[in-house]
Structure formats: structure tokens, C-alpha cells
Write the C-alpha cells for this entry.
Amino acid sequence: MDTLTRSTTLRKRARAPKAEPEQPARQPLARWKRWLFAFVGFVLLPLLLLALVELSLRLAGYGYSTAFFKRVRIQGADCFVENDKFGLRFFPPALARSPPPMVMKAAKGPNTCRVFVVGGVRRSAAGIWSRPIS
């Protein structure tokens, strides 16, 4: 390589890099847009994710019913029976209580009113004998 070619090559390398066209300055987001972005990111997206997980678990049949009564078919008639897993809603499995066995027809008769009494006069709702009040 001769001296002329070498000096030309060095000059090309020494030249300042081409200046890129200036980007226009970004305008800051309006305050309401920042609040909207934060609300969507911190509230709506997590709620949407939780709803999606809940829906997929329900469709997969995961978990148990938390209702007090379960609808079953007994001898061709629709009935309600106690849900033996109802206590798991409030207590760990080792402490969970099951409601007493009961069966009731699902369809009420005309002019019928169902009244549920939890506990009794001398018993608490938890099934533990209470002390008499004197």
C-alpha cells in the first residue's frame, strides 16, 4: 500500500461521523394520560389477569362449591342436601365442621316460606354448648 492510499484511508477514518437528523423533542404526556396509563397498568391489567385465571380454573373444574346446599337428584326428584365441604370456606381441613345431614326438595310448594334457624336456644351456631345465662 502506498503512502497516498494510506493517508486517504486515515483521513476517511478521522472524519467526524455523519450527524444524524435531529429527532423532534417529545412532548410530555398530559397529566390525565399518565393517570389513565397508571390506572390501566396497575388496576385493570391485574384484575383482568385474575379474572382470566379464575375463569380458567372454573372451566377446568378446580375447587369445590362454597354454597351451603348442593343440588342432587334423589329417586328422580331434585333435592338440596348439605354441602360437606362448606366448612372448608372458614376453617382448615383439620378443623372444618360439616353441617348435619338434611334433605329438602328443591321445588317449594305454593304459599311456602322456608325459614332457616342457625343454632338454637342453648347451643351456639358453632355447635358448642354455651353456658346458661343466669
User: Anything to note?
Assistant: Residues 119 and 127 are 7 Å apart (CA to CA).
